[in-house]
Design brief:
mainly alpha; 60% helix; single chain
């Protein structure tokens, strides 16, 4: 496969994963998959939480596509798609688990407008401990904080104090 086409497929997959992650977070994790995701909306009592199983679940298609595209003779584009899914997972881990939730010790302080917006949006998402009534389901894109705060007020759900 032409490397340029592979790169386009990789980048398109990476971008498409944000839409997929939004939908999975909003309608699966805050829906029938709440039994796993609920642990993420509660204080963590150890290094891991049930919600971490989602990382393993979402890694399976990436692994299968990489294996098929590289080793099993499938269409080579599948390897680029699998790599795009894996890259999104790595970026998600860095943003969400390391920067926002500080699951690994670091001294990074968000200074750019973008990073401040992402961190604040995720904190507003966690302002509600319930399955319904929360805001901001994306991971790499989020509406401005003032928009999210208005949406939270409209839901009239009691939020955790800061």
């Amino acid at each position: 496969m032409n490397p340029w086409l592979g790169t386009v497929i990789f980048l398109a997959t990476l971008a498409g994963m944000e839409a997929f992650a939004y939908a999975a977070h909003r309608w699966v994790m805050h829906g029938p998959g709440w039994f796993l995701h609920e642990s993420h909306h509660r204080p963590r009592t150890g290094a891991f939480e049930l919600n971490d199983l989602y990382a393993a679940i979402f890694a399976v298609p990436s692994f299968v596509l990489l294996l098929g595209g590289v080793q099993l003779g499938w269409w080579p584009g599948f390897a680029w798609i699998g790599a795009g899914i894996a890259a999104y997972g790595a970026i998600y881990f860095g943003f969400h688990d390391v920067i926002v939730h500080k699951r690994l010790a670091h001294r990074y302080v968000p200074r750019s407008r973008y990073m401040k917006r992402i961190v604040q949006a995720h904190r507003l998402h966690h302002a509600v401990e319930l399955k319904h009534g929360t805001v901001s389901f994306g991971f790499l894109w989020a509406p401005p904080a003032d928009v999210l705060k208005r949406r939270l007020k409209l839901t009239r759900i009691k939020v955790k104090p800061d």
